[in-house]
Specification:
By secondary structure, the protein is of the alpha/beta class. The chain has one domain: Decaprenyl diphosphate synthase-like (Undecaprenyl pyrophosphate synthetase, 3-Layer(aba) Sandwich), CATH 3.40.1180.10. The chain contains eight helices and six strands. The protein has a six-stranded parallel β-sheet with strand order 3-4-2-1-5-6, with helices on both faces. α2 runs parallel beside α3 and α5 packs across α6. About 40% of the residues are buried.
């Protein structure tokens, strides 16, 4: 299995990105308010973060709040962002002791001040974590990030993919840049990327599961990584078997 050549010092293992979909539908199926689904989704995040290093994941990126989520009712967006804030405050206390580094990618200027303070606290408290790099995408849009990075591209004398990747990391508060995504998993039965890590997932393996996010657990994560390990990644080249 061929791996990406981009390595970030201190984080061994693959980069897995997760689109955590299905909280609302899970709640409706259980005759619960949507807010209960989002709270159950946070429990799933904790399960997955705990399991990730054990199954060979060095970097884990979670799609916590899309820039398009601002279109939802203000009451729901406020609840979502409050859950993000609560999780980050907990991360500052607990994940630091478990050697997990937490960073947040995406825009920050539109986040409520309390969430911005939680982002800063969690990142500072977990700076030296090396067991797992946990990245939360908050107010994140891949197309918007690419557009903002492209606006800076003209200043480069010799544009390259690597240089553009560094620009993309700068606009997303993601320095040093994380390695490219190896495996992208989406829960909830939908089969689309929804403007998530489009540049970084150019050669990612994709897995779509019908499991709703609140149901997702360590067993599901391990199964996805095992499926990834069975796949042959050629990055546009021929399979060794085809060359022989």
């Amino acid at each position: 299995m061929k791996q990406s050549s981009l390595q970030v010092p201190g984080f061994a293992g693959i980069h897995v990105a997760l689109i955590m979909d299905g909280n609302g539908r899970w709640a409706e199926a259980h005759d619960l308010p949507r807010a209960a689904g989002h709270r159950a989704g946070v429990d799933a995040v904790r399960r997955v973060v705990e399991a990730a290093p054990r199954v060979g994941i060095g970097t884990l990126t979670l799609f916590a709040f899309s820039s398009d989520n601002w279109q939802r009712p203000p009451r729901e967006t406020a609840r979502l962002l409050n859950l993000v804030r609560s999780f980050l405050l907990q991360a500052a206390r607990d994940l630091a002791s478990r050697d997990v580094r937490v960073t947040v990618i995406g825009r920050r200027d539109r986040l409520p001040p309390a969430v911005q303070r939680a982002v800063d606290l969690a990142e500072r408290a977990t700076t030296w974590g090396r067991a797992l790099h946990l990245r939360l995408a908050v107010d994140y849009s891949a197309r918007e990030a690419i557009l903002r990075a492209a606006a800076r591209l003209a200043a480069l004398r010799a544009p390259t993919r690597e240089a553009f990747g560094r620009l993309l990391a700068e606009v997303d508060h993601d320095e040093p840049p994380a390695r490219d995504v190896d495996l992208l998993v989406r829960t909830g039965g939908e089969q689309r990327l929804s403007d998530f890590l489009l540049w970084e997932s150019a050669y990612a393996e994709l897995i779509f599961t019908d499991r709703m996010w609140p149901e997702f657990d360590a067993t599901d994560l391990e199964a996805a990584v095992r499926e990834f390990a069975r796949r042959e990644r050629r990055f546009g080249a021929l399979s060794p078997a085809a060359i022989a």
